Amino acid sequence: MKNSQLYKGSLNTIIMKLLEENGKMYGYEITQKVKAITQGELNITEGALYPALHKLEADGFLDVEIEKVDNRMRKYYKLTESGEKETVNRLSELEDFIRNMQSLVNPKLEF
Amino acid sequence: MKNSQLYKGSLNTIIMKLLEENGKMYGYEITQKVKAITQGELNITEGALYPALHKLEADGFLDVEIEKVDNRMRKYYKLTESGEKETVNRLSELEDFIRNMQSLVNPKLEF
DNA sequence: AAACATACATAAGTTTCTTATACATAACAA
DNA sequence: TTGTTATGTATAAGAAACTTATGTATGTTT
User: Fold this and answer.
1) How far does Cα A36 stand from its chain's mean position?
2) Residue span of the signal peptide, if any (chains A, B) (predicted)?
3) Nearest-CA residue of chain B relative to A105?
């Protein structure tokens, strides 16, 4: 991740959402996609990403498929059925979180 | 805090925003205010709150003023000048964070 | 008398991250 | 041809922010 502590705890949700959207992705691709979408503001580090992917796999939310492209290894991840259900929950939690943060920070707008 | 990991990293920003808005507050008051604003969805635990307040004070962002009300101690915190500046920065970071998360999660809406 | 609310505090442990390092191939620049 | 950048994965040590549990103390409600 980068700069602000705020991103702590959001990495898993980001990964799962991207996989839900794109079917399957490999680690490096995820970092580039996130960088592009956030216009360079969020840079996921390998030290954060790979352990997160391994944990999601160990939890049964992701399946792995290894491919060799241009003589380089790629580990493609995709959501399992369990992972798809979990993604729905996490996205719902994210919406609640954002709504709550906006209520806290912008109380004028809440009613 | 509660449930979702997403709130990790947002506590300091929440505290500082509430202090900016209300002038001075004591710890317990902050927990009740947050609970009320989020309709019970976010419960700040003492184990998270008090160390956070002490650290913000140690960093020079908060001043303390002890009062005794109904024979019970209250430690009122308020932002220092430095704390006010920092609050502006953190709120700006929070806006960026929310915008980035919405871009990641709801790519249809970004353009 | 017991439970709950108010009010603060800390210690042990967990999770999630940062920072640094490591390995390997390919492309490009000096 | 040698160094840098890009692609691609991985782990280990340490920091930071939290959870959970516990402790102290007073006031209020059941």
Assistant:
1) 14
2) none
3) B17
Q: B75: Cβ–Cβ under 8 A, 6 or more apart, which residues?
A: B26, B27, B53, B64, B65, B66
Q: Measure CA to C1' and name the residue nearest D12.
A: A47
Query: In this predicted model, what pLDDT tens digit does every residue of A12-68 receive, in sequence order?
Result: 999 999 999 999 999 999 999 999 999 999 999 999 999 999 999 999 999 999 999
* Neighbour tally for B36: CB within 10 Å: 9
Interchain pair A5, B12: CB under 8 A: yes
List of protein residues whose beta carbon is under 7 A from strand C: A 1-2, 7-12, 44-48, 51-52, 55, 70-72; B 5, 8, 26-29, 32, 46-47, 50-51, 53-54, 69-70, 72-75
Report how far residue A94's alpha carbon sits from residue A96's, in angstroms, rounded to the nearest whole number.
5
Candidate from B21, B100, B105 with C-beta closest to A91:
B105
CA A22, A26, A29, A34 torsion: positive or negative? positive
- Which domains, from first to last, does chain A contain? 5-109 (1.10.10.10)
Does at least one atom of strand D sit less than 7 Å from the CB of B54? no
Query: What is the pLDDT, as a whole number, of residue A3?
Result: 62
Q: Which residue of A has its CA nearest to B1?
A: A97
